[in-house]
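Expect chain and fold; thus:
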Amino acid sequence: MTRPVFLNGFGLTNTLLCVLWLLAVICGLVILWNYGARPGQQSNQPEQWPADSTIEISGERPVVLFFAHPHCPCTRASLSELERVVAHATQPADFVLVALDPEADCEAWRDSDLVAAAARIPGVRIAWDPEGREANRFAVRTSGHVVAYASNGRAGFSGGITAARGHEGSSRGRSELIAWLRLDPLTQNTSAGQQTFPVFGCALMEKNDE
């Protein structure tokens, strides 16, 4: 019996729709992969601790600054990696989450799950950054950017501690930061220059924050 022509047409339409759907899925995955693997904007950090910084530090221990946009979803992965860094540091250090505060003491802005989670990490304290002034002093442009300075104010590390945007797990940045924190203070103070790694995160200052 001859199959009706409309059934053949229906089958061809389904096939074309499946092919188009598959192409759309592949394109979407490629876009997501490119987005996740694309580093954020990054500048060279000061080689010495900025003299005009208002962040309180002991001056006796190395300090690690974690710059964060309080409402950036992909910074959560970086925060999880920071918690691992804190847990694996064998030498005393000051850990500070520097949270952007573009609206100057706005409670609605400061109500952030990310900042609350950071405050629960033992050894991490919060420093709010009005209008991103500290971020500008340290030339930080991307949320999740970590900078570390030795007790004498010499830069030792700058960059991200995740392998991709919003991706938890092992990364070279995290490993090198832990290794630097495990150095004895004298070696940290005399190490040759800072190590730099790409940062994967959102822009610290979005247009609607400025």
In short: The chain has a mean pLDDT of 82. Residues 5-37 form the longest helix (33 residues). Strands lie at 63-68, 94-101, 124-130, 146-149, 155-159, 195-196. DSSP finds seven helices and six strands in the chain.
